[in-house]
Write a structure and sequence with these properties.
Layout lengths: L1 H15 L13 H43 L4 H56 L7 H21 L21 H51 L30 H37 L1
Helix pairs in contact: 1-5, 2-3, 3-4, 3-5, 5-6
């Protein structure tokens, strides 16, 4: 059952997920690709910040005018009417600015996704290079690059800060009623099956995040261990990549994973949440089967 759910959700997620094909541009080395996306990301982030700042100013002025009008409605109706005109005029500008924030946010997030993909790929290559280089050879440049771009990866993920709440949504209140027709029950079953499919896609997303955290943790440990070995030989004094700060930031309520936890703790939280989601999906499908069985009975 679980394998079927994951395969089905994976197929759905593949059709909906943004493509990273742009991060695999032909003719660029992995480092050139990272540097390219670094510049594109910075530009997109600046545009987003500028749009957000402009909207905040308009929003503050809009709220101020609304408060002022409420204070003037009874004491100075003429003034309140003039303020209303200002509010209506500002509302159009505010709506346009709000739309621009949405556009820039979407662009920033898409570029960030490509940048993270390029960074992850390059760090994997650097890690393989570091592990495959004999101890007698200099690894100063490779480890310096690894540390620099590892920190950049964490910075970008902090900025994007995916809002992933590790809390299940309430179960939908879908039950068979005495006055339900067979068609009504079939529609309710379909509703539950669609919810199960959506939650299954969430399971795939969590599985991907767990795999990413595990891979990064193993990679950082490998690089840090080798760096420590080299330092013991007195070859260099490059700072070692920390092994307790890797992985994406996940924010939410008190049950959400955050950066104050170790990667191991975040993985445990996400695994527990994944298991709860899988149990929820199985329950939704079981209820859907019961509704379809009841629909068949009422047709007799």
């Amino acid at each position: 059952m679980r394998a079927f759910l994951l395969l089905t959700a994976a197929a759905v997620a593949a059709t909906l997920a943004p493509s990273r094909a742009g991060a695999q541009e032909v003719g660029r080395s992995p480092l050139e690709l990272v540097e390219y996306w670094n510049g594109v990301y910075d530009a997109a982030y600046r545009r987003y910040e500028a749009a957000a700042a402009e909207f905040r100013v308009l929003e503050e002025n809009w709220n101020r005018l609304i408060d002022e009008r409420l204070q003037q409605v009874e004491s100075n109706p003429a003034r309140a009417e003039r303020i209303l005109g200002e509010i209506l005029s500002l509302s159009t500008e505010r709506t346009i600015a709000q739309g621009q924030v949405r556009v820039e946010t979407e662009e920033w997030e898409q570029v960030g996704d490509s940048f993270i993909g390029a960074l992850d790929n390059y760090l994997e290559i650097l890690n393989n290079t570091i592990r495959g280089t004999p101890l007698g050879d200099s690894l100063d440049e490779s480890i310096s690059l690894y540390n620099f771009w590892h920190e950049r990866l964490e910075e970008v993920e902090r900025q994007l800060a995916p809002n992933l709440l590790l809390v299940l949504e309430p179960m939908p209140e879908v039950v068979a009623r005495d006055d339900d027709t067979a068609e009504d029950l079939e529609r309710k079953a379909t509703l539950l099956e669609n919810r199960a499919l959506r939650d299954s896609a969430g399971v795939v997303e969590i599985e991907e995040k767990i795999a990413t955290d595990r891979r990064r943790l193993e990679r950082d440990r490998s690089t840090a261990d080798l760096s420590a070995r080299i330092r013991r030989f007195g070859d260099m004094t490059i700072p070692v990549v920390p092994t307790t700060e890797g992985g994406p930031e996940i924010v939410g309520d008190t049950t959400a994973a955050d950066r104050t936890q170790t990667p191991e703790q975040r993985i445990e939280l996400m695994e527990a949440y994944r298991d709860e989601m899988i149990a929820r999906v199985e329950l939704l499908l079981e209820r859907a089967r019961e509704l379809r069985a009841e629909a068949a009975r009422r047709r007799m």
